[in-house]
Amino acid sequence: MVPRPPTRAVTALAVLALLALCAPGLLVAAKASSPPVASLRGSTEKTVPLRTHSIYAPYVDSDLQNRWFDFGGSTIINTNKHIRLTQDRPSQAGWLWSRLALAPASFEIEFEFRVDGKSNNIFGDGFAMWLTKGRAGTGPAFGSTDYWNGLGIFFDTYANSRHAYSFPRIYGILNDGKKSYEVGKDGQGQELGACSIDFRRTDVTAKARLTYIKGKLLELGIQHAKWDEWTTCFAVEGIELPSQPFLGFSALTGDVSDAHDIISVTTSNIAYHPPASNSKKPPPKRGLPGASFFSTLFSLLKWVLVLVIIAVAVIAVRGRRATANSKRF
């Protein structure tokens, strides 16, 4: 007799059993490959706005200068709309740098930006935000020098090599001035933190919010889908930037291009409020030695007593029935 192949029901049960056995491992793998990023800035509070590191329309005065910022390269100022670091043309590089260093040890920088162009398929290269010890010059790192001392956050729209993640991509790199930015690898392996977010041609004005608490945390949030809906791109604890860095923005186009606009920059000093300590809570009450044993024993005896009562009741009922039956005969 030829054995019958397993039915679909049996096969399905086998698959379900296999999934049940493997599910914990599968869930762990999924979480490891794409971990959720939790925000760390919930206990921060803006205190003093820093006019020296904030810029808004019309951006320049009557002399076509700004008191607190310098700009150059391909940068064009539209006093009603934006600071355009590059136009949608090949081979452009523009920059915007604060004239003064950022003195506070803890601060938050929120800026509005827009990246757009004629092409729907191939575009680039992107722009960068800088917090560096010096005001960097023009170079291959998104229009700025590739050796910098401080933090660079890159809003990259063009992948120079193949990656397991998608573009556009945002990533931060902390440099000590001795390492070169690896353009061909799009900084892969150098990132402090990163995320893949499509910030190009957003329905609402895109925003980025960098929160820095000296020695405690560095967090980047992005608004790109809805107003006041922030996505945490990355959050890193125990980070220290160089003291008194300059704030800058730069952008670059190569064979492919986009318009890279900075619309506004708002910088504020912030205060950090650590979570409330539990040290003031009264200590938990300690029970008597052996109290747990006696409690377990009492519970066991209680159930034994219940079973004995049930058994006695059953015996009594059966006895009454037997007596009643004997009287009939």
TrEMBL record:
Where the protein is mainly located, per its record?
Answer: membrane
InterPro entries to which the protein is assigned, alphabetical:
ConA-like_dom_sf, Intracellular_Lectin-GPT, Lectin_leg
The name this protein carries in UniProt is L-type lectin-like domain-containing protein
Q: Which UniProt keywords apply?
A: Membrane, Signal, Transmembrane, Transmembrane helix
The GO terms this record gives for MF are: D-mannose binding
Task: State the SUPFAM superfamilies in the record.
Answer: Concanavalin A-like lectins/glucanases
Residue ranges of coiled coil: none
GO BP: endoplasmic reticulum to Golgi vesicle-mediated transport
L-type lectin-like domain segment(s)? 47-270
Query: Would you indicate the residue range of the signal peptide?
Result: 1-32
Biological source species: Rhodotorula graminis (strain WP1)
Q: Where in the cell is it found?
A: Membrane
PANTHER family per the UniProt record, alphabetical = RE50040P (PTHR12223:SF45), VESICULAR MANNOSE-BINDING LECTIN (PTHR12223)
Instruction: Please give, as recorded in its UniProt entry, the membrane topology of this protein.
Output: Single-pass type I membrane protein
One cellular component term from this protein's GO annotations in UniProt: endoplasmic reticulum-Golgi intermediate compartment
Q: Which domain of life is it from?
A: Eukaryota
Membrane-spanning segments: 293-317
Task: Extract the Gene3D superfamilies matched here.
Answer: 2.60.120.200
